[in-house]
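Appendix B, example 12.
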Amino acid sequence: MSKTEEIYGEPCDGTKHVAVTIPFKLIIAWDKTKTTNKIVCHKDVAKDVKNIFDEIFKEYGQEEITRLGINLYGGCYNCRDMRGGTEWSRHAYAIAIDLDPERNQLKWSNTKAQFAKPEYKKMIDIFYKYGWESLGRKRNFDWMHFQKIV
């Protein structure tokens, strides 16, 4: 049993998911005609998610969030393995969030990814403040991906 499973239970267990309302609309990255202001996540990270997005809204405001593409939502819960791996993705536990996937693609480093630019530092710092990490900052790839530190 992995440490993630010990803390959050079985992957893909929708009975532990809750919908968190955030203070701004997210545009669904794979269908830009759809929006939501809810993120479905594991109940044990719901307070973090609420605090993170409330603080991002307070820090940036709607106009800047839209300009920077912070509102482009790539998802949270997804019952799948890690890309290119054999372990469960943190998305399978609903403890990971992808933002602006088109401009922060999986294999892009800080030379190409939007979130590597200085104007996103405060956003990334907010995730860290609540015990989440940026794979972009940590490993210099997958800049779209933010996950609860386990």
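The two ends are 14 Å apart (CA to CA). The mean pLDDT is 97.
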